[in-house]
């Protein structure tokens, strides 16, 4: 078996994992954002850490893939709250890779009964064997 120097191993780690580990300061900022927003609003930080929640670039293909998840998520909200919201538009998405992926979706939906438009946040899991909605809520107002 080939033996690598420490320098070669470090270079291979960067090639395989990307940049070096996330700094302690950035990990604190990231953790505070996850705690404050439930993972729906997080910035991108340089570095690597397992299980990071990161933003998804919403190009057309991503919209097509994620819109059905948002539609299922608002259906879950309607079932839980006896409401009649209809999905309108995907605003943003974050993803966390696990045994599959967790999608933190922010989207607009319209109440069919009164026409009111709300911004929602929903957590959809696309697992290896299971696809399910974990939560859906009206986006909290932040000050």
From TrEMBL:
Positions of the Cystatin domain: 60-115
Record keyword Mitochondrion present: no
Pfam families linked: Cystatin (PF00031)
Domain of life: Eukaryota
Keyword Transferase on entry: no
Signal peptide: none
A single GO molecular function term of this UniProt record: cysteine-type endopeptidase inhibitor activity
Record-linked InterPro entries: Cystatin-related_pln, Cystatin_dom, Cystatin_sf, MS5
Keywords: Protease inhibitor, Thiol protease inhibitor
Identification of the protein by name: Uncharacterized protein LOC110414301
Organism: Herrania umbratica
